Amino acid sequence: MTRLLLSFAAVSVAAGFAVADGRSVAGRVDTPPEVRPAPVRAAVPPRAVDCNRGAGAWTAGEVKCAIIRVFPAASERGALRVAWCESRYRARAVNSSSGAAGVFQFIPSTWAGRWNPYRRLSPLNPVYNTKAARVLHMQAGWSHWSCRP
After folding, report:
1. In whole angstroms, what is the distance from residue 22 CA to residue 6 CA?
2. How buried is 121 (Cβ within 10 angstroms: 0-12 exposed, 13-18 middle, 19+ buried)?
3. CA dist list (Å): 44 to 9, 36, 78, 80, 96
4. Is 40 left (phi over 0), alpha (psi -120 to 50) or beta?
5. Which of 26, 35, 105, 133 could crosslink 86 through cysteines, CB 3.0-4.6 Å?
6. Cα–Cα distance for residue pair 149/141, rounded to 1 Å
7. Are 110 and 102 a contacting pair, CB within 8 Å?
8. DSSP 3-state assignment of 121?
9. What is the pLDDT of residues 6-43, one digit of tens each?
């Protein structure tokens, strides 16, 4: 009897009838609820960085905020991964052996390069460090970092 009801249900559904408790309901077809795609964030130019709360140490959340505001949406996830791998979002991270500094761990010779419009500023400032990382990423991708997205 169970096999017969299942067969009846399959035929009813295939014919366009909804099946409830083994009975067909003519004229009504149950449709799945509307599926809405996730909203897509448009690629927009970098937003002004307003995450700095003034003097004092930057928190990991504030550093993440700066990264999100500086990098375009298409590169944001990669930037967050590289920054986490390089410095764990610590703005004042310094590698004692190489001298690499800041969120994206720029070594001094790279930071001083002519490509960097922020080279006269401190790499320990997470806003300048992040902006410089964006400039370098736009020129050469993630190839300059040992950590990759």
Report:
1. 8
2. middle
3. 51, 23, 17, 18, 37
4. beta
5. 105
6. 10
7. no
8. coil
9. 444 444 444 444 444 444 445 544 445 565 555 555 44
